[in-house]
Amino acid sequence: MKYEFTEDDLQEIEKIKAKYPEVKAATLPALWVAQNRFGHVNSDVQKLVAETLELPEAHVHGVATFYTQYYKEEKGKFVLDVCTCLSCQLCGGYDVLERAEEKLGIKAGETTDDGMFTLNEVECLGACGYAPMLQITNDKYVNNLTPEKIESLIEDLKAGKTPEYEQIEMPLRKVK
Amino acid sequence: MPEVFIDGKRFEYEGEQRLLQFIQDQGMEVPFFCYHPSLSAPANCRQCLVKVGQPVKDRETGEYELDENGERVIRWFPKLQTSCNTMISDGMVVHTQETDDLVKRAQKDTLEFILINHPLDCPICDQAGECPLQIQTYKYGPEGSRFEVKKVHKPKRIQLGPRVILDAERCINCTRCVRFTDEVSKTHQLTITSRGDKNYPITAPDREFDDAYSLNTVDICPVGALTSADFRFKARVWEMNQTPSIDITNAKGTNIDIWTRDNLVLRITPRYNEAVNDHWMPDEGREAYRLFNENRVSRPHQKIDNEQVKSSWNNAFATVAEQLEGVDKKDVLLIGSSHASVEENYILSKLSSLLGYNEPVFTSHTEKGKGDGFLLTDDLAPNANGCRLLGFNEVDNSKLSGLAEKAKVVLLLNDNLVDREVLSEDQLNNTFVVSFSTNHSQTSKTADLVIPITCIAEHAASYVNIDGRIQRSFPAKETKYTNRRLDFEMNEGRLDRYGTNFDNWVTEENKVDCLPFWIVASKLADQLGVDGFDYGNGREIMEEISSTLAPFEGVSYARMDEESGIVLDQEKTTVKS
Fold it and tell me: What residue ranges of chain B are covered by domains with CATH 3.10.20.740?
């Protein structure tokens, strides 16, 4: 498959380039433009980004492989990163993960056949206060999960309903 | 002059200096892996940690503050500093591992971390014996590891490019190779991929590491992660013997080391010369080691019934004399060579003038587009400038073939004129061609008599590079007639020293039956009845050249060794008598 940026993408990349004194600094945002367009930055997309920015391919490859948030292969439309690090683990992260695996019929690290979901088991995403939690495609956090909640989440996503951003108040110490 | 105190000793310094380099320049040592004097210093191996402090100055008076003992008060940096990217400043106080236990401990612990995932397969690793990681682990490292978990496994035996193989498990991610392609060869072909404990250097996907200078990364790799596809598993470092020499594959005169074992050249590595090649050399030059081993002319060969058969030295000299005696002097053509040394060409020209022949001619060997402005040049011969400074007539290819066709006898010094299509076999049909050759080639096959001469790896001789710099070689491998134990210019490796003719690591066949051209010429002169033409080695020829020819004034082997080459005054010309 041949990957090409649209005219809009190229304009956006030009804008990004204009922000920095050197082109090299535009690598990260340009990779985001690419990932938003194609859903991933596999080696062909990395080449495209390198060509567009006129940077060495090896450099772009090195940057892309450094960050797990850039997908180096095709993923599902929704990537569910379920946290099973300490806090989430204690609050039932594995129960959530297992229910998700059952519901989707895949194991962690796999993608469903219809290309809708990729399920990942990840380490701490910094939301221990609302454990267990997961992140959807590098974006929204879904907090205070229960096995039931994840089932309905998956149903919602299938129906095209994405969750809202959630603001959770932290209990503060009462000053006397 | 600004001063710096290292381990309690006072040193003066000038200009901007990196602390690690300065410490090394003073003959002291701090361990390091990622630093390289010709590359940037990212300080990512963390091995060169030292304790650094600055004296406290009174802001108002600018005087140093003193303590009750009258010593300067030192304000230490809050943490240990990497000496490779710390610039020296006036009054700086430095403690290395020699005087500070914290530094010693830090270096030891860093090494323990570096070694967590290192396979420690030194017994089968090519780098063993010349491995900074191995050496420094012995010197500064912990005695054992406290890590009992399984080591991280990474890809092994990746063919990065046609000449370089990667073993990612051995890699310590110093990024020297990546910085080399970024800063020196500027092909930007390598990067570090993945992150954390799984990272290693690699090319972009589906790309080859085909940099014309790729093998330099093997040299600067401080572990055995990058190895040469060609040299891999061929020899242990300590079995070999290292001899300084000059690259002969182009006119840059890159300084090299020739590594031999049992009189075979096994590899070529660059030798530092700031004025010529810094620490680097092109991959092409390393291939030249085959020229020194393979396809060598051993014993004179004479063409009888269109077939070259081995002949004797006596017969060879007698045949040349016989051929020369029968012909008119102007029908003899001597062809010098930009592929031969100054000494060899000088001897050819001296022989011709003594015998009353025309001055030798030569043709340069260039290929447009070969040069890259760095260490590759369009000129593919090591000594075209040497021939020019000797006052040889430089002729173009067509003129040379015309001359050769007309001549009755051609004496051809080591230059593959038929192979590079300056001359054709047909043109030489009616000419008696004597070729003084190092290797068999189309040209030597065409010749009626082939007299084997020593190559650059077997004699000490000098070459003038493209910038007019004269540099010389040392004999690295023995011929049938030389002996390491008698020739003080030759190095002895362990096997050379302790081997005997009855061991299975001494192979007599590896010694080529050839003579230096000056000895061949002396014997020829003797045969032809010329008196006083007797040269034993390159050194005495160079003495004669420097005392008679203006461009070479003041040149001697001693000076070339001392100054790693001398730039000749190319304005001066050799006046022909």
Answer: 3-114
User: Consecutive sets of 10 residues in chain B, 577 residues long: mean pLDDT of each?
Assistant: 94 95 95 96 94 93 90 94 95 95 95 93 94 95 89 95 96 96 96 92 95 96 96 93 95 96 95 95 95 94 92 95 90 95 95 92 93 94 94 91 91 93 88 95 94 96 95 95 90 86 86 96 92 91 94 94 91 67
CA–CA separation, A9 and A11 (whole Å):
5
Interface of B with A in 201-230 (CB under 8 A): 202-207
CA–CA separation, B206 and A44 (whole Å): 10
Asked if B11 and B28 touch (Cβ cutoff 8 Å), the reply is no
Q: Which residue has the higher pLDDT, A13 or B425?
A: A13
Residues of A in contact with B203 (CB under 8 A): 58
Question: What CA–CA distance (Å, rounded) separates B341 from B337?
Answer: 8
Q: How far apart are CA B255 and CA A131, in angstroms?
A: 64
Helical packing angle, A93-104 and A147-158, nearest 10°: 40
| Burial class of residue B502 (count of CB atoms within 10 Å of its CB; 0-12, 13-18, 19+) | exposed
Where does CATH 3.40.50.740 sit in chain B? Answer: 301-474+512-567
Kindly state the tokens that stand for A135: 């992140």
How high is the pLDDT of residue A154? Answer: 95
Selecting from B188, B193, B206 the residue whose C-beta is nearest the C-beta of A65 gives: B193
Q: Do A66 and B194 touch (CB under 8 A)?
A: yes
Residue pair B535/B347 in contact by the 8 Å Cβ criterion: yes
The ipTM, to two decimals, is: 0.87
Let me know: does A13 contact A55? Beta carbons within 8 Å: no
Enter the DSSP assignment of B422: S
The answer to whether the CB atoms of B195 and A65 lie below 8 A apart is: yes
Question: Alpha-carbon distance A49 to A63, whole Å?
Answer: 11
Subunit contact A61:B191, Cβ cutoff 8 A: yes
CATH-assigned architecture of domain A78-158:
3-Layer(aba) Sandwich (3.40)
**CATH number belonging to the domain at B122-228, selected among 1.10.260.40, 3.30.70.20, 3.90.1640.10, 3.40.50.720:** 3.30.70.20
- CA closest to A58 among chain B residues: B204
Contacts of A3 in chain B (CB under 8 A): none
Give the A:B interface size as CB pairs under 8 Å: 40
Contacts of B499 (CB under 8 A, 6+ apart): B262, B505, B506
CB–CB of A46 and B192 under 8 A?
A: no
pLDDT digits (tens, 9 = 90+) for B177-187: 999 999 999 99
pLDDT at B575: 65
What is the full DSSP assignment across B83-144?
A: GGGPBP-TTEEEE-TTT-HHHHHHHHHHHHHHTSS----GGG-TTTTS-HHHHHHHHHS-SS
Q: Which CATH number fits domain B301-474+512-567: 1.10.10.10, 3.30.70.3400, 3.30.930.10, 3.40.50.740?
A: 3.40.50.740
Cut 0.90: pTM above it:
yes
Fold classification of B3-114 is: Ubiquitin-like (UB roll) (3.10.20)
Residue B424 CB coordination number (10 Å): 15
Measured CA distances, B166 to B136, B144, B171, B215, B237 (Å): 22, 26, 9, 12, 19
